[in-house]
Specification:
14 helices, mainly alpha, elongated, 4% strand, 325 residues, two-stranded antiparallel ribbon
Length: 325
């Protein structure tokens, strides 16, 4: 295992090794306050990199579709046939309930163009996540961060791992979301035990995968590891750091709920939150929970087996003027 370091051709401050380094609840809010404008800046970078998703969402909205009228139910044709031969009040009542027309639409050329642009998110998602992970990891370990250089430089250095990881991450998220929704509605409609069982299994896998995500991108930007090793370690960390992980899950859910409430009560503010702070705050919550576990189980054992010279050890733990791949 090797560490990945950032080299800007200039010496950096690094992170001083402090035996009393704190990752408690109170320190989290202090770091958020100290880095609030940087969190807003990196959130804007993240949204800018994932602009294709807005094209996808607009295409899915149906606003670009070609409209047409279609029967509301399968009863339209037989009732319409009866009405042609018998225009009685009873037939008209059947028409009102079973043969009405509703508005629908089919995808236009513009819709497919927007879908194609939106599909680019499979390329941008992993790249933007490694950039976000680098910045929020630095915030968590009290390391100085040059926002633009760190964010976009990390994307450039780690694109070979970021692209496939982002692709797999999106597919996994879509599959788990589909499973939860599918089994939720099936359990309601059927009332059977099996769909309810699979719903809980899907939720368990979804929460576990959410906790794995706290570690995946951070390990990409911190260590020189294969993706299979990263996924294995992320799964182990989801269990080893369960206490911190579940607190982070609750914190991210709280951010989402707050965002939704603000959107319902104060729509402009609720709509602006994802563009300004929601993504970076969620990523910082994840890294604040994950980094102490990574340090405890991967970084500290590494330095115990490979101690730095005394003068370097005292100066900085992660020195920005060292390059290693």
């Amino acid at each position: 295992m090797a560490f990945k370091f950032i080299d800007y051709n200039r010496p950096g401050k690094g992170v001083k090794k402090e035996s009393g380094e704190s990752y408690g609840f109170g320190k989290f809010f202090s770091l958020v306050k100290d880095n609030i404008w940087k969190l807003i800046s990196v959130n804007i970078f993240y949204v800018f990199c994932n602009l294709p998703i807005f094209f996808l969402l607009y295409g899915l909205s149906g606003n670009l579709n070609v409209p047409f009228q279609t029967p509301a139910t399968l009863a339209h044709q037989p009732i319409n046939g009866i009405l042609l031969n018998e225009a009685s009040p009873s037939v008209f009542s059947m028409w009102n309930f079973g043969a009405r027309l509703v508005s629908a639409g089919y995808a236009s050329t513009a819709t497919w163009i927007f879908f194609g642009i939106g599909a680019l998110v499979f390329l941008t998602f992993g790249l933007s996540n490694v950039g976000m992970a680098c910045i929020t990891r630095n915030f968590a370990r009290r390391s100085p961060a040059d926002l633009a250089d760190d964010f976009f430089g990390t994307m450039k250095r780690n694109w070979k791992q970021a692209l496939p990881l982002g692709f797999m991450d999106l597919l996994a998220g879509l599959a788990l979301s589909f499973d939860v929704v599918y089994f939720y509605y099936n359990s309601i409609l059927s009332g059977a035990f099996v769909p309810l069982l699979f719903l809980f299994i899907s939720l368990y896998i979804g929460v576990t995968y959410m906790m794995m995500r706290f570690y995946m991108y951070t390990m990409v930007v911190t260590f020189d590891l294969k993706l299979t090793k990263i996924m294995k370690n992320a799964f182990l960390f989801s269990m080893l750091g369960f206490k911190r992980n579940i607190m982070a899950v609750l914190g991210i859910i709280l951010v989402l709920v707050l965002n939704l409430v603000l959107f319902m009560v104060l729509t402009p503010i609720g709509a602006l939150m994802p563009l300004l702070i929601s993504f970076s705050l969620g990523a910082f919550i994840a890294n604040y929970a994950a980094y102490p576990n990574i340090k405890k189980f991967m970084i500290d054992p590494y330095y115990e087996q490979n101690p730095l010279p005394q003068e370097e050890h005292e100066e900085a733990l992660f020195s920005d003027d060292v390059s290693a791949e």
